[in-house]
Predict the 3D structure of the following.
Amino acid sequence: MRTKLIAPSLLSADFGNLQRDIEMLNNSQADWLHIDVMDGRFVPNISFGFPVMKTVQQHAKKFVDVHLMIVEPEKYVDEFISHGADLISIHYEACTHIHRTIHHIQSKGVKAGVVLNPSTPVLLLEDIIADVDLVLLMSVNPGFGGQKFIENTYKKIAETKDLILSNNSTALIEIDGGVNLDNASKLFEAGADVLVAGNAVFSTENPERTIELLKV
């Protein structure tokens, strides 16, 4: 049976009740907790950093998936690891020495992923695909939650799957942006392993039930 993981994004949580929302996810069928870190430079927005990571570390009981939308991520990966990250994904577009950084993350006992923006071709991953644990495909332009899903993502999933198979890679494929109940099953069928969902989970009356439905 194929992997079908749901990673709710805390970017859409209620920051006035963050512990409550994390505990809700602990008790739900969510598989991972997705942490979107933005620096206002690589993307036109600023989200949270180490103080929020400390709260996540204190209360999260599930796998912590950290997505660094920041320039020079290699300067910060060690601190995110010390704050409880189980997987750190860095943007291909933001890291000059991506091979070195991926292996540094893995040397600390943490899984490492590479992220592609919607306009970045999958073929650029050919020399790194066998080394990474995950490929995160952005299905919106990074920086803000609640954006409309980019349909070309399905083509990129197929290209990524082909690249993984042709290089005997074990990398998972994660999709981030515009994921909802209308497209989740289609994304899994296309070859995605992990779906990040923010507004689709936290804007509903029953987030736990929504997570269940996303996995169907």
The first helix runs from residue 18 to 26. The longest strand covers residues 32-38.
